[in-house]
Amino acid sequence: MPAVSRPALGPRDLEFHYIRAAGPGGQNVNKVASAVQLRFDLAGTQALSEDVKTRLRALAGARLAADGSILIHARSQRTQAANRREALARLHALIERAATPPRPRVPTRPSAAARRARLQDKRARQRTKRLRGSIGED
Description:
By secondary structure, the chain is an alpha+beta fold.
């Protein structure tokens, strides 16, 4: 599979917000806004084609906001810079997944032997169920 080149995302496409991360961490967690919230303007970007945007909307799931942007939260690292790198890496991974088109489905048909076996199994099940029924009076 050929390597997909990363699209050139402009500064207008990306917006970073820095917030305080929740959870353990002592006093540092209360003082430093190390968590990163990355907002990628999917609707307004010119870096991606329409089919990639469509697949990206489907892959984004709950990360897709009502205004058509993708929100990615990164808070697992201790520093703001590391969280920023992680958020960008996750966005690029999502875009790379959307950039590869899905393989077309090749319709197949069951073989003649498979059809015969299926019908034979159906007859055997039919006979078994018929034998389970009540015995009628003659």
